[in-house]
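Reopening this one. Same input as before:
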Amino acid sequence: MASNTHLVCIFSDVHFDNEHPECWASFREWHAEHKPELSIANGDIVDLGMMSRYDQGPDDTVYAVHQIKEAVRELNSLNEECERLVYIPGNHGERWEKAIFGSKAQALKGAVGMTLKEQMYAQGLSKSIPWVAESASCPGLYIGKKAVLVRHGHRQAGGWGIKNIASANLAKFPTISTVVGHHHRAQMMAQTSLGRKVVSIANPHLSGDHDYAPSPNWQRGFTILEFYGRKRLRDCVDFSAYVVIMDEKGRFSLNGKVYGAHQKET
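Same output, byte for byte:
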C-alpha cells in the first residue's frame, strides 16, 4: 500500500464447512497477494448446522468440532498473511452455547472447553486473534478514529430477512459508517450530513447455498476499505469503500486483475 494508506478487508458468513469453495479460494488468493493491515472475520465463520432446529442433509457433518477445526485452520492462515486479524462471532456461533444445555448436546463429541470462544482457542486458534462479541456494552469493532463500526448485525432491529439493510442501518446509525454481515446481501448506501460522509454497507457472504433458506437475492463477496490521510490506521477518519461481488464461479476483477481466473467457464 502507498504511504499513509491502510487496507482493511471484511468477510463474513463463510459457514465452514458449508463454504463456497471457489469463492473462498478467490478471496484467499486476493488476501494472500494484498496482505491487509486489518482483516475482520465478521460473524458466522462456522455453520454449526447440526446444532440448529433445521433438518440436516445426509452429507452434512455430524460433529461440530470438525467445522471448528477447519475454521481455525483457515483463520490462522489468514492471520499469518495480514498484520492483524479480528474475529467477531455471529448468530450461528451462538448455537454452540445453546446446544450445551439442549437436545443437540451429542454433537459436542470431542469438545474442549464450554464456550465456542474457549473451544476455538483450545482447538488451536492463534491467541493473537482477538474475539470481539457484540453486546449491550460493545456495539462491535471500531476502525480508525471511530470512522467505521463493524458488526455481524444479528442483534439489530429488523432481524433476519430485512430487505433494505443498508438503508435501515443508515437510519439507525446516521453519524457513523457501518458494515454488517448476517443477511448475505450486498448493499451500499451513503449520505452526507453537515459535511460528513456516512456509508452503510451490507456485506455479502462466502458460503454455499443453504437448503433451509435458499435465496436468489444473496450475493457472494467481501468488502474492502482503504483508509488514508494518517500514518496510523487508528487515527484515520477518511476512507474509500468497495463491495466486491463474485460470480457463481467465484471470480471477480479488481485493479486490472481477475481473481479466481483458474475457474473455467461452463
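So the earlier flakiness isn't reproducible anymore. For the record, The CA atoms of residues 167 and 189 lie 7 Å apart.
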